[in-house]
Amino acid sequence: MCPPHNYTYSWGPSPTYSAVYVSSQELYQYFKNFRAKHRLEKYIHLQHKVVGATWDGKAWKVQVEEVQTGRLVDAECDILINANGILNNWNWPDIPDLDKFQGKLLHSANWDTTVSLDNKSVGLSSTTHYTPSEKAVFSSSPSTLRALRKLNETSTNCLFGTFVKNSATQHDTRTDLTQQMQSRLNNPQLASAPIPSWSPGCRRLTPGVNYLESLTKPNVQICLGGVRSVTETGVVGPDGAHHDLDVLICAAGFNVSFRPRFPVINEAGTNLQDLWAKDPGCYFGTAVADMPNYILFLGPNCPVGDGPLLPVIETQADYMLKWIDRWQTENNMLFFHPKAAAVD
């Protein structure tokens, strides 16, 4: 979770966010408004995806698929920038017969807001909201909004010590979080399942309001050990018992392997998908050895866990533009990529 006032571009704040934490729809609206304000639509092609890119020694030959028709279009570029992102390629769980389920199948990362919750018990926990007068101050006093954003940044960056491996701060944080989870669950057998074995920071800390408490409610049944298989009407637990379901929600997370989603092949025939199959690595999360004129956002070792990603993206964009400027202005530069020693 990230305060929305820090989930904006540093030079494009929004004074209209409604709460300390907001829904994805409100964040999405910020970026749609940003796109419209800067007239970016003409540079965006929706329902298109890159399915392959090959460097021929002079330029990138790129294949683009028109999703609705399946038609392939050939394109060419001097510099290829991969901005696929990291937390948007969701995984479906590898469970036998998942496709046989006849109820409503949802994924937490691709939520269907049209699903009816009629005749179902639903709990809603609200967050702290900004008052109209507070939002008016944010609009009329940029310095006040800037002070709030800097305070949020300071608070999140203070968490950095938590993510230093084997540090005293990390140990103390893990102890505190474990005690909190055990206290909220108040069930030793149940607490053994959701409390992770890894250190804080291996996954982003995502506090869910009343989530742990909901696991102890009388209308919730916990099936430890995962799902054995799926049927048309429900799931089979590890003990062989069948559980009837109206809706099956999959929260299997994302593919975060950093491997590109399409073949990226250099002049020697090396595919970056193969190169990054086990141990991905690149220069400051931005450029790859032996992949000329190929740069990317949020590459391996780049994401942070103690603050928003947008400042990282801005910094990478500035770095890319400096390289592109050199490439355009220095006549003897045909292509660029980091040396393997620099990456290592």
TrEMBL record:
Necessary cofactors:
FAD
Record Gene3D superfamilies: FAD/NAD(P)-binding domain
Please indicate which superkingdom the organism of origin belongs to.
Answer: Eukaryota
InterPro entries (UniProt xref): FAD-bind_Monooxygenase_sf, FAD/NAD-bd_sf
Family the entry assigns = Belongs to the FAD-binding monooxygenase family.
State what protein this is by name: FAD/NAD(P)-binding domain-containing protein
- The source organism is Knufia peltigerae
